[in-house]
UniProtKB/TrEMBL annotation:
InterPro entries: Ig_E-set, NXPE4_C, NXPH/NXPE. One of its GO terms (biological process) is nervous system development. The lineage of its organism: Eukaryota, Metazoa, Chordata, Craniata, Vertebrata. Residues 333-558 form the NXPE C-terminal domain. Keywords: Membrane, Transmembrane, Transmembrane helix. The chain crosses the membrane at residues 12-32. SUPFAM superfamilies: E set domains. Pfam families: Neurexophilin, NXPE4_C. This is NXPE C-terminal domain-containing protein. Belongs to the NXPE family. It comes from Poecilia mexicana. The keyword Signal does not apply.
Amino acid sequence: MMRPRARRAICCLKFRVIYLLLTLNVIILLLYGDNYLRTREVTKVKSTTSIAKTSCSFHSLSPKEAQVANFLKHSIAWPETLSLPPHLFLNDTSDPAQSTFTILPHERGSWFIGDQLEVLIKVSDFYGRPKTSGGDFLLARLHNPTLNAGVAGRVFDHRNGSYTAVFSLLWEGSAHVEVTLVHPSEGITVLEKLTREQPDRIYFRSFFRLGSVYKITNCNICLNSSRRLCNYTDPSTGEPWFCYKPKNLSCDARITHAKGGLRVYLRPMEEKLFQSGVNLKVSIPASGPAHIQVLSQYDYFYRSDFNFPWDFPGVTKKTMQSSPSGYYYQGAWRSLDGTTVHQFNTITAISQCLKNKAVHLYGDSTIRQWFEYLNQSLPDLKEFDLHSSNQTGPFLALDYANNILLTFRSHGPPIRFRVIPVSHLHYIANELDRVVGGANTVVVIGIWSHFSTFPIEVYIRRLLNIRKAVVRLLSRSPDTLVIIRTANPKALTLYETLTNSDWFSLQRDEVLRAIFKRVRVKLVDAWEMSVAHHLPHSLHPQPPIVKNMIDVVLSYICPKTENL
Ligand SMILES: *[C@@H]1O[C@H](CO)[C@@H](O)[C@H](O)[C@H]1NC(C)=O
Ligand SMILES: *[C@@H]1O[C@H](CO)[C@@H](O)[C@H](O)[C@H]1NC(C)=O
Ligand SMILES: *[C@@H]1O[C@H](CO)[C@@H](O)[C@H](O)[C@H]1NC(C)=O
Ligand SMILES: *[C@@H]1O[C@H](CO)[C@@H](O)[C@H](O)[C@H]1NC(C)=O
Ligand SMILES: *[C@@H]1O[C@H](CO)[C@@H](O)[C@H](O)[C@H]1NC(C)=O
Ligand SMILES: *[C@@H]1O[C@H](CO)[C@@H](O)[C@H](O)[C@H]1NC(C)=O
Ligand SMILES: *[C@@H]1O[C@H](CO)[C@@H](O)[C@H](O)[C@H]1NC(C)=O
């Protein structure tokens, strides 16, 4: 995983670029205002006569929040990638098949548990010429299939075409290195451009009706501001949302919200940067051995008081460090943040843990999965039929004997579900304000995947609102347990990349961690739990991964559980 720290040479805030895009015989000129945080006006000029305006309305954040947003944007800035020449050839771009990784020898000659393993990655183009600039998106994993063990590595970009992946060695025996090129740096240039120029590429629809008159119009955060709009900005959070005003109907006649579709302009060459089996999530081969043997530390120095695994001499001196949040061993997630992850393998173990609890799940379909998992695992937890769709919820389930309440509600716009009644479009921050909280209340939040196509400010704003509501909840009911699920990588096709690339998810994941860093919440590190696992990346991780996530959740709820 790559977590770049340094800033780009050209800062996006001072950004003012005129980009020329040729699509069919239409020239689209896009001009950017330099205040990204308030209202960003994108002017598309189709020929010289008709002028169309799309406004992405984020509304003004308070000066303090604007500062936070600026800081966050700065901290997730990706290493500068080269702008693409007008005639880009695939052969000049990063090719995983021509790239290699090499395990660097340990200075001591062999590896022990607690050591860090360094792997040098050299990226080359299709001709095999080494790249001389960075910005490729790489993921790295260390694993042992026999032990069912795995851990995510951390990737450092040297910005000269070489990268170092660093892994923590956490088990004895063999450890295999796996390096994946998710996107070539040229693809990152395209993804950045898409967010800047086509933030409205996913569009939404609302159905309006009064008596026998009905209309369907488009809705978004970014709409053509020259047209009449219905303003559905949430009064309490200030979260913006708009629809084009339906003719002959009032804005109050809105009945449903739904995902419309994807509308995107890409040059044919740009599409070639996202080809499965070529340069989209493809493994990079090893130049030599791809695995090492890790010896038990007891063979060398046994210390009864050592603080595994961070206390080893030498480890803390290194500048390139991997500090994973956990790892798999025999298929079970072991946390490294001090939490003991228990195995909740029986119905009794789960229901005893949840006895007398109200568990409220809020978010997208990756949180709905957790409702489905618990609903399926506990026969005495009966779902009450709220007549809602199985995609959108809301859901409610009760176990009367054990006094367990489980609920799920999806987050508000830009939720990308099929059809949802507008009366079910609730913002998480507002929902949290309605929770009394207390020692028997567990709040679980997972919100990330539907924000990928928008400028990051939209997500920052949403999380700052949720954060404020979490802080209010924790101050009125300090015993409430709040758990947050992070983003995770998924299976990518060209379509999935343009709407929901892991690169967009990674940026949002970093923002999420930063915003909740100083809030008393527990994280479920879905990112590392997916990267470290042998199962393929999936937006909705497969049952063995979900089982591990639920074990982490239940271990937060019931930390003292013994003899399950
Ligand atoms: C934006 O709205 C104006 C006024 O209705 C119209 O002339 C223009 O064509 C619209 N542009 C787009 C891209 O829809
Ligand atoms: C790209 O490189 C390959 C292998 O070096 C070569 O066969 C092919 O002709 C090149 N294509 C172009 C358009 O240069
Ligand atoms: C790239 O940068 C790293 C770190 O500064 C350095 O060790 C390495 O030699 C450089 N590689 C090349 C090919 O310049
Ligand atoms: C929408 O409404 C909000 C709050 O009522 C207001 O602050 C904002 O300026 C309005 N936006 C537009 C584009 O009318
Ligand atoms: C609006 O209502 C008027 C009067 O009933 C009707 O003539 C017109 O066609 C309607 N316009 C639309 C766009 O439905
Ligand atoms: C909950 O479980 C019941 C019984 O298996 C099933 O019919 C229902 O569809 C489940 N609900 C959800 C939201 O998964
Ligand atoms: C919801 O139900 C439909 C049709 O019954 C089914 O195809 C779909 O997979 C279900 N979705 C979920 C998330 O369970």
